[in-house]
């Protein structure tokens, strides 16, 4: 009886949320001399401007931190690639970082004839079929590129972005878009717009043949990615005529081998026009000031007549199409249907159906397949593109199950939709959960910018009102409408992709051309860049946390409470934090997984999931190595119900022997699959290098121990969980006193806490000689990771480490020494980085880790290139000053808010700080010079032995070459995984 009353209460809450409709209508406004359009009740308060030359500006004000997310969006991607030059839009994206006639060059007058010659040579190269002649032409391209590089300045664009303080310099190309992205401090708008205006004025395609090699490497990475191969196969079958399926973003190997700078230039001139582009900026802005500056900066752009990709409609799919994909990874099955155009009502219904099938809690797949462990895992999704969508069902089979069985199980759940055998409350619950996500999401500048950018790409922003009203529209969809639609839509009209474990005999890698390292002239600066770098701006004053003021500390019974009040909305997030994990109790992570499938004396496992979904709340248990968390989140009005349910589940879960046996089978199958995943193998290899044979990666139960797990042991851990010492953290609208009072009523605590079991300790290896740890894997690339332990972490060195990482090779920093040398100058890799990895505790050692992912036939060169940098630190005053300024700027503009304050406090506490450690970091950075970083490099990196962790195919490399690096240990999967 309690269950029915509780369920009815939840239903009322969800129903109330779902029926709250908001009107979103287009309006026109004028301010500061500019007219704009906006949508009423828009939580992002976005303004859509169209300037005189047709350029769109989409601006959203959010002044909670002094930062701005920027996106320059172009409505052109692989869909608009010429049939004879696929991958061209993606090439162009890379080249838009190379500069113009004003920056990126020392002397454009002398550089231009050489660039013209290179362009002409590529035209001949692309049309030549004789292999010997192609080599001759490429040799001339290589020589001429070397000559041209004497006048080029690599990555000047990135240098300017670092001087401005951008924290994210990036770009991406997709089927319908190319987007250039930055995240800048709000005090640098003038300098930033000056660079962007110049960047798109007249780009120069320099340093092409080394960038071309980076794209080759990106293609080879895709050949090693089973998921990407499945996606491409699925799209090709779904879209037999549309470029969604007929042209990949990165292009074919044949087209990559015959690049044309002339065609790239034509593409730029055709599509990079103001009436096909949008500037999107979200953050700490003033609307009137910013639109005026944008208008002045980009007024030079001239609109052109434009014809975008306009394909003929695809013919309906009338039969099942089966596609087989092979690769070294685990098996899986995908059932995909072709959907409808963006913002269509049909697409909205399909999006809703995908959530009814799979929402992570109470969907039909969640309840009937995942919760019942009838497959290893399953899911459903709807991916919306402009012209069509892709509705996809996927499953990974469990032990003893073939792909056909998994397919039947997926389609059986679709049949339940067609028969109407699902609870109509799922519709209301989906709407309520979606609204909860939206409540906090639009507070984020990235979310705002991404959403409005997508709206521009799909329809120039004209249906932003439909985007905002989609959830309300979803609430109006009835069960009958879903059933009728499903019976029309789901038929034998799908693409079945079967991913098999096996050799992919279709793979043809992009061969390595002979490339001579080019000059990067990293110490030189063009006059344009000097003006940008030297321009003074009013600095932003850093704001550091004061934990005694920004946090509220209290008690709820025995448990300590740390709270931050949410003053913006009604969302709460609460966590029980236990100082114990899998290092204390090997069985604990298995107990947490087991709980997912358990019932109590009142509720079945399925009912528990439905209850949380019905009240738009989430709970999870995460077991780390030395910490375990139980987290609950949702609307504060449902706090009591959510917490009471969590407490009930933990205290009253009952053993289920069948579920335990199924779980054991799943665990063993996951272990098998992990041995097929090169990324997981690589992680295990690195852990082996850091700790030796006894390491955190393989510290788990043996397969025999898993088979012998007892239900009572797992249940005991769960029932006693809250009897161990823990701290409660809370972010929500209640004040500390009210929250603590409420929590005491709900959270049962013992008279005294049970002491934890001892923490498992691991011994760090000492690297006295070079060693090679090798794992054989069927792949095109060869991945090399350098590993060296460097002793216990001392926070006194925090500033040096921070600055060294930024200068030397931190991930994503395109101005770093490693990126400039390995990728820009030598074209040895697409992905490369290196950094001193800071641990989360003073009790742990710091580790130097470097990475290069290169073609197998470049392995020797890649290793030599990184070793050279580890031995001798290249000196560039300009780059160093930019790195230092960037590090200081990140601290000046960084703002930690909401429950981020709690996370910062706990992280600092673990490192031994009783205050915001960023304050020390900021003070420590200011006096540092290059000599300090150089001395740090000399002491900790130079001429040191390293452990080389290499994952590659023995068939593609010479094992004898590895002996030059150090003593080889070829590890078996059993040694790496421990089972």
Helix and strand content put the structural class at alpha+beta
| Range of strand content | 15-25%
CATH class of the largest domain: Alpha Beta
Main pleated-sheet profile? 6 strands, mixed
| Separation of the first and last Cα atoms | 48 Å
Could you report the average pLDDT, rounded to the nearest whole number?
Answer: 94
Radius of gyration: 29 Å
The CATH H-level homologous superfamily of the largest domain: Metalloenzyme, LuxS/M16 peptidase-like
Q: What share of residues is helical?
A: 40-55%
Indicate the overall shape.
Answer: globular
Count of beta strands: 25
List keywords for this structure.
Peptidase_M16_C, metal-binding, six-stranded mixed β-sheet, Pept_M16_Zn_BS, metal ion binding, Cytochrome Bc1 Complex, Chain A, domain 1, alpha+beta, signal, 979 residues
Task: Describe the 3D structure.
The protein has 979 residues and is α+β, with helices and mostly antiparallel strands. It folds into 3 domains: 34-310 and 510-534, Cytochrome Bc1 Complex, Chain A, domain 1 (2-Layer Sandwich); 547-676 and 687-746, Cytochrome Bc1 Complex, Chain A, domain 1; 771-977, Metalloenzyme, LuxS/M16 peptidase-like (Cytochrome Bc1 Complex, Chain A, domain 1). Helix content is 44%, strand content 18%. The protein has 38 helices and 25 strands. The strands form 5 sheets. The protein has a 6-stranded mixed beta sheet with strand order 3-4-8-5-7-6, sandwiched between helices. The chain is globular. The relative contact order is 0.11.
């Amino acid at each position: 009886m309690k269950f029915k009353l509780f369920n009815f209460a939840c239903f009322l809450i969800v129903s109330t949320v779902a029926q709250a409709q908001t009107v979103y209508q287009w309006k026109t406004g004028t301010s500061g001399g500019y007219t704009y359009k906006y949508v009423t009740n828009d939580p992002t308060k976005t303004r859509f401007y169209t300037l005189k030359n047709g350029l769109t500006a989409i601006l959203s004000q959010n002044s909670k931190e002094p930062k701005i997310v920027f996106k320059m969006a172009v409505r052109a991607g692989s869909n608009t690639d010429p049939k004879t030059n696929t991958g061209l839009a993606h090439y162009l994206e890379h080249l838009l970082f190379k500069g113009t006639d004003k920056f990126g060059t020392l002397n454009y007058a002398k550089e231009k004839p050489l660039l013209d010659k290179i362009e002409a040579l590529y035209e001949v190269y692309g049309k030549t079929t004789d292999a010997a002649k192609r080599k001759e032409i490429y040799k001339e391209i290589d020589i001429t590129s070397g000559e041209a590089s004497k006048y080029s300045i690599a990555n000047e664009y990135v240098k300017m972005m670092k001087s401005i303080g951008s924290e994210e310099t990036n770009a991406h190309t997709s089927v319908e878009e190319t987007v250039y992205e930055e995240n800048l401090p709000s005090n640098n708008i003038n300098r930033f717009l000056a660079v962007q205006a110049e960047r798109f004025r007249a780009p120069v395609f320099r340093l092409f043949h080394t960038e071309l090699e980076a794209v080759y490497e990106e293609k080879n990475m895709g050949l090693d990615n089973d998921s990407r191969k499945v996606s491409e196969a699925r799209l090709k079958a779904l879209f037999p005529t549309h470029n969604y399926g007929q042209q990949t973003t990165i292009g074919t190997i044949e087209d990559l081998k015959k690049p044309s700078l002339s065609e790239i230039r034509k593409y730029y001139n055709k599509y990079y026009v103001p009436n096909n582009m949008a500037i999107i900026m979200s953050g700490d802005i003033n609307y009137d000031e910013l639109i005026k500056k944008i208008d002045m900066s980009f007024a030079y752009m001239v609109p052109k007549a434009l014809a975008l990709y306009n394909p003929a409609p695809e013919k309906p799919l009338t039969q099942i199409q089966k596609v087989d994909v092979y690769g070294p990874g685990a098996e899986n099955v995908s059932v995909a249907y072709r959907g409808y155009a963006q913002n269509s009502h049909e697409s909205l219904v399909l999006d809703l159906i995908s959530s009814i099938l799979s929402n992570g809690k109470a969907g039909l797949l969640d309840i009937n397949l995942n919760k019942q462990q009838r497959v290893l895992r399953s899911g459903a999704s709807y991916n919306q593109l402009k012209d069509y969508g892709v509705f996809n069902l996927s499953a990974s089979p469990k032990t003893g199950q073939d792909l056909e069985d998994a397919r039947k199980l997926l389609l059986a759940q679709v049949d339940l939709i067609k028969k109407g055998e699902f609870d109509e409350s799922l519709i209301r619950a989906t709407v309520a959960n979606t609204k909860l996500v939206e409540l906090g999401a639009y507070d984020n500048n990235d979310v705002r910018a991404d959403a409005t950018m997508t709206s521009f790409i799909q329809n120039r922003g004209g249906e932003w009102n439909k985007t905002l009203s989609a959830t309300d529209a979803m609430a109006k969809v009835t069960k009958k409408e879903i059933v009728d639609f499903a019976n029309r839509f789901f038929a034998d009209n799908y693409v079945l992709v079967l991913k098999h474990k096996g050799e992919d005999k279709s793979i043809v890698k992009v061969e390595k051309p002979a490339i001579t390292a080019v000059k990067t002239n990293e110490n030189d600066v063009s006059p344009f860049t000097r003006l940008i770098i030297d321009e003074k701006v009013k600095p932003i004053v850093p704001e550091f946390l004061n934990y005694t003021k920004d946090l509220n500390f209290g008690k709820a019974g025995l448990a300590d409470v740390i709270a931050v009040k949410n003053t913006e909305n009604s969302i709460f997030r609460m966590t029980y934090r236990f100082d114990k994990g899998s290092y204390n109790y090997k069985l604990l992570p298995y107990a947490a997984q087991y709980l997912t499938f358990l019932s109590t004396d009142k509720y079945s496992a399925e009912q528990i999931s439905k209850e949380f979904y019905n009240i738009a709340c989430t709970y999870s248990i995460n077991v780390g190595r030395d910490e375990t968390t139980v987290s609950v989140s949702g609307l504060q009005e449902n706090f009591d119900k959510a917490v009471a349910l969590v407490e009930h589940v933990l205290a009253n879960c009952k053993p289920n022997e069948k579920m335990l046996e199924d779980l054991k089978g799943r665990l063993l199958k996951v272990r098998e699959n992990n041995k097929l995943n090169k990324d997981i193998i690589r992680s295990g290899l690195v852990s082996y290098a850091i700790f030796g044979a006894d390491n955190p990666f393989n510290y788990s139960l043996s397969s025999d121990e898993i088979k012998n797990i007892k239900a009572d042991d797992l249940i005991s851990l769960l029932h006693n969980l809250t009897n161990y010492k823990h701290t409660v953290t809370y972010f929500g609208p209640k004040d500390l006193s009210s929250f603590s009072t409420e929590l005491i009523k709900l959270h049962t605590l013992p008279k005294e806490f049970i002491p934890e079991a001892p923490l498992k300790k691991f011994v760090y290896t000492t690297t006295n000689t070079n060693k090679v740890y090798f794992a054989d894997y069927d792949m095109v690339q060869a991945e090399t990771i350098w590993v060296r332990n460097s002793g216990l972490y001392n926070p006194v060195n925090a500033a040096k480490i921070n600055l060294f990482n930024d200068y030397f090779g931190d991930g994503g920093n395109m101005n770093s020494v490693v990126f400039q040398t390995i990728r820009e100058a030598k074209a040895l890799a697409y992905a490369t980085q290196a950094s001193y990895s800071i641990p989360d505790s003073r009790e742990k050692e710091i580790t130097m880790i470097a990475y290069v992912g290169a073609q197998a036939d470049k392995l020797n060169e890649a290793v030599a290139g990184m070793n050279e940098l580890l031995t001798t630190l290249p000196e560039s005053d300009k780059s160093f000053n930019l790195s230092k300024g960037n590090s200081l700027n990140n601290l000046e503009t960084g703002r930690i808010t909401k429950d981020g304050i709690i996370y910062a406090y706990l992280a600092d506490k673990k490192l031994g700080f009783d205050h915001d450690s960023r304050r020390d970091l900021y003070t420590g950075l200011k006096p540092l010079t290059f000599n300090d970083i150089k001395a740090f490099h000399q002491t900790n990196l130079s001429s040191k032995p390293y452990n080389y962790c290499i994952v590659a195919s023995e068939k593609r490399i010479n094992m004898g070459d590895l002996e030059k690096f150090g003593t080889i240990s070829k590890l078996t999967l059993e040694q790496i995984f421990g089972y």
